[in-house]
Amino acid sequence: MLRRNFLKLMGALAVAPAAPGWARPKSMKPLNFVFILIDDMGWRDCGCNGSTFYETPNIDRLAGEGMRFTDAYAACAVCSPTRAAIMSGKYPARLHLTDWIPGNRKKGKLDRLAFEQQLPLSEVTIAESFKSAGYKTCFVGKWHLGGRDYYPKTQGFDVNVAGNNRGAPRQGYFSPYNLENLTDGPKGEYLPDRLATEAMDFIDSNADDRFFLFLSHYTVHSPVQAKKETIAKYKAKAARLKYDKLIFVKEGPDARNRERQDHATFAAMIEHMDENVGRVLDKIKRSGMEDNTVVIFTSDNGGQSILPYGRTAPWGSNRPLRGGKGWNYEGGIRVPLIVKWPGVTKPGSVCSAPVISCDHYPTLLEIAALPPKPRQHIDGVSLAPLLKQTGSLKRDALYWHYPHYHGSAHRPSGAIRAGDFKLIEFFENMNVELYNLRKDIREDHNLARTMPDKAGELRNKLHRWRQQVNAAMPKPNPDYTGDS
């Protein structure tokens, strides 16, 4: 079915009675949705997940009002694929959008693998689903899913503020920003403040309508910049605290990985991000919408802890998780996730079920009592049973496919998590590593040799999945000499 005809049909279905068994909001007011996506925020970069240096009272408050997921994952260890998975409900491997756009040109033993440079317009995005159901839709912040012909307004958003093809504000976080689809503010204006204000203005303008707001902060992606007074606050805090010495590893995903969080500027950046999450939450409350607004808060990949050529990122630490952005170790893919569904999620509840970015699409549709689209969100499952605490998910594994080299020194790999066990397969030599995450969250103890049957079981399952989604695999590099 042509996409435009599909959307017309969905518009008609949106006003039809819901089928028996669909979730319906208890309140007579229609539900609004605010999806907050942070860039490069690590799993431990907020107080409710264990940070003792960063201060995130607003995120922690949201966790106290909703459900916090301890084992939530990004669909990829880098940004664009995860963003595509959220918008489409599909694994990046199925979309063939498997690296950040335009991607790393590095080669090694394997050749560079071509991939989609945009989210295809043939995908019916979560925004298009809400728009066809009569919702006002707005995108604010980082898009990074293709060029101008693929910007948010082509993908179901009525309003686009700052969404473009850039992955970071190259001019920096202080105005003038030189960002397409965002007018510069007064000199020195801070980008997170501005984006939150734009989101709040949209809420004000649509107080009488149902809306779907996607607030996608550029923070806390580098460049690491914050306000001087807040940096000074954390410099003083770091000076008051005593830490053990850093642990240095010469190479690999733990190359010079920091054991501690103590970087003043990054801590200030986290605080400013948290402040602006709080401003939006407070706007929802002041507008009388708190009881009928669903809020989702998460990140697009793990925190950046390793820079190219094995250099440490001096601002980041994902410990106790191993590795960081760009790796299929936990530090690269485990992310914060909080969902507040007023009147449904138990305040302060915690869920340890493994979930992933593809799940947001079917979850939001079920919460909104909109028709499911199984052929669209084919890889995601609704988290409603977890949010309601009425059941578990009918899924036995999660998968990752990152067939590219990355500046963090990552080598092309894939991964599977089934229950407590996680297997990573490296494509250069097809070696595998096996970890029991319940006992070894740091992924220190490779069990592949001592548990060969379990490793073989997960490897076979991973291979079958790659075939099912038609995952593209890199080919040998004909120019490889062993020196590159």
Identify the notable features of this structure and list them briefly:
single chain, alpha/beta, eight-stranded mixed β-sheet, globular
Brief write-up:
Helices cover 26% and strands 14% of the residues.
Give a structural overview.
By secondary structure, the chain is of the alpha/beta class. It has one domain: 3-Layer(aba) Sandwich (Alkaline Phosphatase, subunit A). 26% of the residues lie in helices and 14% in strands. The protein has helices at residues 3-14, 57-65, 79-88, 92-95, 126-132, 191-205, 228-240, 264-286, 330-333, 360-367, 384-388, 452-468, and strands at 32-38, 67-69, 72-73, 136-141, 159-161, 211-216, 293-299, 306-307, 311-312, 337-340, 349-351, 355-356, 398-402, 413-418, 421-426, 431-436. The protein has an eight-stranded mixed beta sheet, with helices on both faces. Helix 7 packs across helix 8 (264-286).
